[in-house]
Amino acid sequence: MATTELTTEAFQQTLEDSEILFIDFWAEWCGPCKQFGPVYEQVSEEHPEITFAKVDTEAERELAAAAKISSIPTLMAFREKVLVFSQPGALNAEQLTQVVTAVKDLDMAEVHKQIAEQEQSSEA
């Protein structure tokens, strides 16, 4: 599946519908974003089972603000609606493929357990 443009209105539904969701926050004027774009597109073609989305931070300022984007490009990955990766900066194809593999290989039972433990300790 090719990348899709993600809007504020579509964000929640896309998150709900995707077991794994990668989001590239970018802008037209951003040089590193333009370098990363084709890499992101290429890797998305290699992983049709994953949702790859792009957010134009100029057009979707509210969504970029909600995601606390302070530098672009920023790549975020969600698995089972949990943010499991967030990093600014352009990656090459090999690095992005490593991130995709790492996200796919996560033990989500362990991730959910750690989140529950953090929530309990913050309530105490």
From TrEMBL:
Pfam families (alphabetical): Thioredoxin (PF00085)
InterPro entries on file: Thioredoxin-like_sf, Thioredoxin_CS, Thioredoxin_domain
Limits of the Thioredoxin domain: 1-105
CDD domains noted in UniProt: TRX_family
Coiled coil: none
Keyword vocabulary terms for this entry: Disulfide bond
Protein name: Thioredoxin fold domain-containing protein
